[in-house]
Amino acid sequence: MSDAAHIDHDDVVAWLTLVAERVHDQKAYLTELDSAIGDADHGINMDRGFQAVVGILPTLPADDIGAVLKGVAMKLISTVGGASGPLYGTFFLRFGTATAGRADLDIAGFADGFDAGIAGIRDRGKAEPGDKTMLDALLPASEALRAGIDGGASAADALAAAVAAAEQGMQATIPIVARKGRASYLGERSAGHQDPGATSSHLLLQAAADTLFTG
Questions:
Q1: Burial letters 99-126, b for 16+ CB under 10 A, else e
Q2: Of 129, 141, 138, whose CA–CA distance to 179 is shortest?
Q3: What CATH number does residue 130 fall under?
Q4: What gap in Å lies between CA 87 and CA 73, rounded to an integer?
Q5: How far apart are CA 155 and CA 157, in angstroms?
């Protein structure tokens, strides 16, 4: 298990299991957010996907974090509907590719994988900051994580800073007029609502901070 400086397979499994629990607990809230500016299915789809992920975790390699994350990606792509499946699937697929063959990761390795995942989302969704998407939470989180690492913060503190930045980014989506996805069809009416994808992205990171690099 984690020694605060490194994480291994069991830590990643604990993270993903907690994500599934949190998504399940917040399913109605995520769907409520999506009902205002989307198809009213984000919570339902994410819950279905991560419950399926929990089911396959015991079957994935115990000595390869990248292989675990790739397995998660494939399951999400095959079970999560709407745009979230391909986007979260691409995130974990790129994260897994960046960490392939690794039995453990330090915070820099985690950050590399996280950034690779975000790049995958950008490539797949063609979104940019300020478009009112999950990137509005993930990109500030990445910047804060890197700043913490570069500044010599502990892994836990760097990850906590990333969570705080993701929360700020999530809340900052409220006044934005959406430029991508289903919400963009609403034009000005999309303003005043928090983006559900940014919300689930913050949830994903909060679960990481609660399970990874905790010692």
A1: beebebbebebbbebbbbbbebbbebbe
A2: 129
A3: 1.25.40.340
A4: 9
A5: 6
The answer to the question of residue 1 being in a domain is no
The domain total for the chain is: 1
Tokens of 147: 């700043």
pTM, two decimal places: 0.94
Instruction: Judge whether 38 lies within some domain.
Output: yes
Residue 175 located in a structural domain: yes
Q: What is the pLDDT of residues 36-88, one digit of tens each?
A: 767 788 999 999 999 999 999 999 999 999 999 999 999 999 999 778 899 99
Q: Identify the pLDDT of residue 38.
A: 73
Question: What is the SS3 assignment for the chain?
Answer: CCCCCEEEHHHHHHHHHHHHHHHHHCHHHHHHHHHHHCCCCHHHHHHHHHHHHHHHHHHCCCCCHHHHHHHHHHHHHHHCCCCHHHHHHHHHHHHHHHCCCCCEEEHHHHHHHHHHHHHHHHHHHCCCCCCCCCHHHHHHHHHHHHHHHHCCCCHHHHHHHHHHHHHHHHHHCCCCCCCCCHHHHHHHHHCCCCCHHHHHHHHHHHHHHHHCCCC
- Full residue range of the structural domain in which residue 110 is found: 6-211
